Amino acid sequence: MSELNEYHQNLMADIRREADASGVFPVEAFFDRMTERLTEAGELEVADRAYYQSGEGAQRLRIDGYAGDPRDSDGVLGLIICDFADNGTVQTFGKGDVPPILNPLIRFLKKAKTEEFRESLNEANPAFQVSDLIITTWSQVTKVKLILISNRQYIGRDDTVKLADIGEVPITWSVWDLARFERFDRSGHAREDMVIDFAKDFGAPLPALKASQSGAALESYLLIVPGGQLAAIYDKWGARLLEANVRSFLQARAKTNKGIQKTVKEEPELFFPYNNGLSATADAVSCVRTDEGLAISAISNLQIVNGAQTTGSIHAGLRSAKEQLSKVFVQMKLTVVPPDRSEDIVPKISEYANTQNKVNAADFFSNHPFHIRMEQLSRNVLFPARAGERHDTKWFYERSRGQFINARAKLTPTQLKNFDLEFPKAQIFSKTDLAKFEFSAVGQPHIVSRGAQKNFAEFAKDIGEAWSRSDVRYDELWYKRLISKAIVFRWLETEIPKQPWYEGGYRANIVTYAMAKVFHDANGEKQVLDLDAIWRRQSVPDALQRALLLAAAEAHDVITHPPAGVRNMSEWAKQQACWNGTKGRTLNYDDDFETCLTLVDTAKAAKRDEKAKKAMTEGINAQSEVVTLGTEFWKEVLAWGRERKRLTPKDMQILEVCASMPLRIPSDLQSRYALDALRRLRDQGLAK
Prior knowledge:
- There is one protein chain.
- The protein is built from 29 helices and 19 strands.
- Strands 8, 9, 10, 11, 12, 13, 14 and 15 form an eight-stranded mixed sheet that branches.
- The longest helix has 30 residues, at 600-629.
- 42% of the residues are buried.
């Protein structure tokens, strides 16, 4: 079986499982699953489901979702349509099939721009919500972006497809088909079709100065990019140019800068001396020789790791100062980083380049110590079997896209069977999932509602700052309690669509609001929600289930009844005022809700016990490592330190104990100190 067929088989099994568990249509489960990939890849900032279909043939209208308020994304209106084939084998479609899929979406857009269409719909209808948003923001829309997501394989070879025209603003479209999703899920990117051809598409090759010697570990170049070219490149590829792991971090803090825009408008000739320029990476570059010297004709997978404000502000000049862009020039430091080294190299480039964001620049990267620790815990911490099941299991933390698929691909059939028992597919979670679980629990549902990437940006900022102060709290118990939150969140996802009051739509908002409300009401000065009981049983207690569904019904009421003047419910759910309204309501939980709580002192005692257990384990491990290294090893370390006068009196005292084994055996504390001293001496030149 080919990798694509295997991926399709697994994808369809997962979608059917999710649809059956939640009581939703498979196409809805498909939309939720795949739009998460779109936001992670930078195709969209957020994806809100808004299904509507009417008419037949040439009158057919269809939309599946939209990409939030265009005013939050430089005037780009993103509209999403699903092409879902509920089939057991891989189906294909070509460029001739694209217009019949996309034209109903364009026809919907034309209708949605009219007040007549909007007023013909019930306010609760998702199409009303989208229509109202389009009418309200249309004067600020600069481009319409159509996204076709499909579980079929696209076999079209070019983009020359004739689509319906709306005349007023340009329309672009892109296809995310089965093969593209498969590439993304295996490697964390779908980069094959992002080649910037300067010679063909953007006027001419870019003159460049090579900034690395022949045979260097990495190729580097210095370039001067005309403002018009940079704006046109960003206009075509948008946020996909921003390095995936820092995209949200940069976007959250890099809205177009008024100072930069003022320079573009009023003093474009001074842009180059005023601006620090861009730091960027690429998979590969194509170089040519011109009469003026070396030039770069094409760049494969250009990623801007520093300079989002500069790029966004110059792009804004297409609307506000187009004639001035010809006088704007930007310096770019470009490093060619092979894909297999990007996870190690790119974070360092970004961290050092983003000097104005020094504290948090690396927080988004998958190799940040927080993510590595979560991964290690997820591979080691075993959870008890649920009632009625025989096997203990683990939760698989995918700190970078593709880890789960690639881990399974290396196994024999017997190993694969054991792996799937150990790590059930329902217990996989990603960085953005983790952020949703945590921020729902700590009372930030309005931020969770802003989309996976924006929520993750805020979460990473908080974690980065907390980690820099102390990483001690992120231990095994913290991880176990995180899994309790995951269990609550996932349970709500499956149960809300089954409720009689649920009318479809806003499920993601209701989930996070319901969870936040119960946690808010449960956690007080004397009592807190008993998270330890949840991870021990790996399920949500009945009393807590009833409380969560009561809160979910209330959240649904708040979200679907916004205040006067607010008509878009998805946008309402993203506001602090919506959370304040939910938080302030009094709910009459059942009497047995008290059984879901535990004393604050009991929860703290569990934390103290975990710290003591961790200290004991670390001490035993340290003592074992010291003994394993052996007496002769420690004698040489002691001699090296004495000879170079690198040892404190305490260092000598403890290293002498290590060097006298087995007459004397260092204690746990002494062993930990000896290993710390060894690390320090190695930093000072000890070659052992």
